[in-house]
């Protein structure tokens, strides 16, 4: 058993999700995966992950579930849809929202769940695969402390920022700053030409 205190589900296997799941497998973590398009699970299943047909099946017996879906609608479906993580009642593990959605959306979708973290990830799929992400986390201190060993498998820098929604707020602010920097660079190149 690794320092994750149990299997981990990864829900949503886009570029980041598949890299996070691969990283966890490389670190000896038991991984259960789900994706709306089932064939995205095949490489991970060949590497040792359990591929589930439904989100609620993916989280069975897990200590944590990491959601890396495309948007708020997808996150709502994965958590609260007919086959969603919460369709059978409260989830006993930690729900980790790593999808880039609004802070308010994270809080609304979390509802009364007792163990939810929102994690703004800074980095790309290569950083995710190598455990070199920067992770900005919102949620209760006790939940963060309990899941810190898992987060440290995924990120070289893990920072708890405070209440639920804080991780997404930081992610969106950093995205804004990077956009401004890119715009400034484009303006400078144009002026120099």
Automatic annotation (TrEMBL):
**Occurrences of domain 6-phosphogluconate dehydrogenase NADP-binding (ranges):** 8-162
Question: Which InterPro entries does the entry link to?
Answer: 6PGD_dom2, 6PGDH_NADP-bd, HIBADH-related_NP60_sf, NAD(P)-bd_dom_sf
Q: Name one GO molecular function term.
A: NADP binding
Family annotation (SUPFAM superfamilies): NAD(P)-binding Rossmann-fold domains
**Which protein, by its recorded name, is this?**
NAD(P)-dependent oxidoreductase
Q: What is the lineage of its organism?
A: Bacteria, Bacillati, Actinomycetota, Actinomycetes, Kitasatosporales
């Amino acid at each position: 058993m690794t320092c994750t205190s149990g299997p981990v589900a990864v829900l949503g296997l886009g570029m980041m999700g598949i890299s996070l799941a691969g990283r966890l497998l490389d670190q000896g973590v038991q991984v259960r995966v789900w994706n709306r398009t089932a064939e995205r699970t095949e490489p991970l299943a060949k590497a040792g992950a359990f591929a589930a047909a439904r989100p609620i099946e993916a989280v069975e017996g897990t200590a944590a579930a990491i959601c890396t879906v495309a948007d708020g609608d997808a996150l709502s479906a994965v958590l609260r849809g007919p086959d969603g993580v919460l369709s059978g009642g409260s989830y006993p593990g930690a729900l980790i929202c790593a999808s880039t959605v609004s802070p308010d959306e994270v809080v609304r979708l979390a509802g009364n769940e007792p163990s939810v973290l929102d994690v703004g990830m800074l980095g790309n799929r290569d950083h995710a695969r190598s455990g070199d992400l920067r992770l900005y986390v919102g949620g209760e201190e006790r939940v963060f402390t309990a899941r810190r060993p898992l987060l440290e498998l995924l990120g070289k820098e893990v920072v708890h920022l405070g209440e639920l929604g804080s991780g997404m707020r930081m992610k969106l602010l950093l995205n804004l700053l990077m956009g401004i920097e890119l715009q400034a660079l484009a303006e400078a190149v144009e002026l120099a030409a």
